[in-house]
Task: inverse folding
């Protein structure tokens, strides 16, 4: 298992801005292997008869009122107005899944070059949220609108007008690491600018801990613990076994776990991989106390920081607990 996630370079820009060409050049010159993926990798997963733009030939508004269409073009009724691109529910769902698939690749240790057209603010927020804890280098890829539209006309496989529709929307509300005008240099030279800027940046801020999984509270008897924390303090039961029970806190996904097996109070921190986290902590000067060992939902380990503070790490690599109607744990569901 990798001790750190892979690096993700996001090339964001309008259609015909040069993202794919620059990305491929970047892939050739970077000193280690990078996977190349993005919106043009995932859009073809849609059914051709559902994704109107897949053949780049549709020129009508017949699909404009079809909310089930993953992607539809709305063409202007008068000349000079831009083409409007709208994503339906399944299209938005695809992008949401794409962001998490890219994150999974990075958390497995893969370096990535991602080409994207971040049309919607919700996509931008979702990408940032999905890639939390992963080193991201965000690149604005742009060129003057006249150059963009000329490239679009020369391509022959693009809906003329979509570049203008993308032009301003893709770059709003984003904090870029670098901005690249692809009209000012050839793709190879542009890629070299990005690679040089990337090499000068150290990702010492990559976060190891994903979130707080739970607060474990020892109790002498599980039923007595439930009588206090659930019945008197109002915390809803989520799950229970013979020796532990998980209780909900309404403003967080972290749980209170009352348990009868260990006498000490402990906080469990969620990581992407317990094995990889142990390796990174030991490399940084910490010590391994126990594990990593298997638990029902994944892997767990106990480490000490340089000052002797015990930290319990766990991942959910096996999935999440499944319960019956009474909250009794019946198994694990792969997520």
Result:
């Amino acid at each position: 298992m990798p001790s750190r996630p892979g690096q993700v370079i996001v090339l964001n820009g309008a259609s015909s801005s040069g993202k794919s060409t620059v990305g491929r050049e970047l892939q050739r010159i970077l000193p280690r292997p990078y996977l190349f993926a993005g919106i043009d990798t995932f859009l073809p997963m849609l059914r051709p008869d559902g994704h109107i733009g897949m053949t780049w030939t549709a020129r009508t508004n017949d699909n404009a009122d079809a909310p089930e269409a993953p992607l539809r073009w709305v063409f202007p009724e008068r000349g000079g107005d831009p083409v409007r691109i709208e994503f339906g529910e399944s299209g938005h769902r695809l992008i949401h899944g794409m962001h998490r698939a890219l994150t999974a690749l990075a958390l497995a240790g893969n370096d990535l070059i991602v080409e994207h057209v971040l049309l919607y603010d919700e996509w931008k927020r979702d990408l940032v949220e999905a890639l939390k804890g992963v080193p991201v280098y965000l690149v604005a890829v742009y060129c003057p609108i006249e150059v963009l539209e000329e490239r679009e006309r020369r391509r022959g496989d693009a809906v003329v007008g979509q570049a203008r529709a993308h032009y301003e929307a893709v770059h709003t509300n984003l904090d870029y690491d670098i901005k690249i005008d692809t009209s000012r240099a050839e793709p190879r030279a542009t890629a070299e600018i990005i690679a040089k800027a990337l090499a000068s940046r150290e990702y010492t801020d990559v976060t190891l801990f994903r979130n707080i999984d739970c607060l474990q509270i020892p109790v002498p008897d599980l039923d007595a613990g439930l009588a206090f924390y659930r019945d008197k303090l109002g915390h809803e039961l989520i799950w229970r076994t013979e020796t532990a029970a998980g209780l909900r806190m309404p403003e967080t996904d972290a749980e209170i776990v009352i348990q009868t097996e260990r006498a000490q109070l402990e906080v469990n921190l969620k990581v992407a991989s317990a094995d990889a986290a142990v390796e990174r902590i030991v490399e940084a000067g910490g010590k391994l106390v126990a594990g990593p060992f298997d638990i029902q939902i994944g892997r767990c380990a106990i480490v000490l920081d340089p000052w002797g503070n015990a930290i319990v790490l766990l991942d959910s690599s096996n999935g999440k607990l499944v319960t019956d109607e009474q909250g009794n744990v019946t198994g694990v569901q792969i997520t």
User: Anything to note?
Assistant: The longest helix spans residues 89-107.
